[in-house]
Design goal:
Blueprint: E1 3-10, E2 15-26, E3 29-43, E4 47-58, E5 63-75, E6 81-93, H1 101-121
Antiparallel strand pairs: 1-2, 2-3, 3-4, 4-5, 5-6
Length: 122
């Protein structure tokens, strides 16, 4: 899935937003997609939380691939810390659009599975 263009905007001292365009190959052909990502860092006395929101919009199919992720780094002791990861990946459908069932199945089974494997590898 090659990125066509990308823009990044800083949103204050602890946040950044990214916008990009992709072309995705589906069983019924190729489709243009627009991606949005947002990263925000929250600092507290005993922990740091990174919140990542991702959305890939498939406008012609009326589908949105969504990813919500949090990384929480907490102090366990004076010498150690604990890092926990939380991920949620899902597909949303927009009313009024009729995506092909084979494309929906492909996105739910193959695209989300690939995305999850990529997240686990990092």
């Amino acid at each position: 899935m090659p990125a066509v263009c990308s823009t990044m905007n800083k949103r204050g001292a602890h946040a950044v937003a990214k916008s990009f365009n992709l072309t995705i190959r589906c069983p019924s052909g190729t489709t243009a997609a627009h991606g949005l990502q947002y990263l925000h860092k929250l600092e507290e006395n005993d922990r740091i939380v990174h919140v990542r929101l991702s959305k890939l919009l498939l406008p012609t199919e009326g589908l949105q691939l969504c990813g919500h992720a949090r990384t929480v780094t907490s102090k366990a002791t004076a010498q150690e810390c604990e890092v926990r990861f939380f991920f949620q990946l899902f597909v949303e459908r927009q009313e009024g659009f009729s995506a092909a069932e084979k494309d929906i199945k492909f996105i739910q089974e193959d695209v989300l599975s690939t995305w999850a494997m990529k997240l686990r590898s990092h």
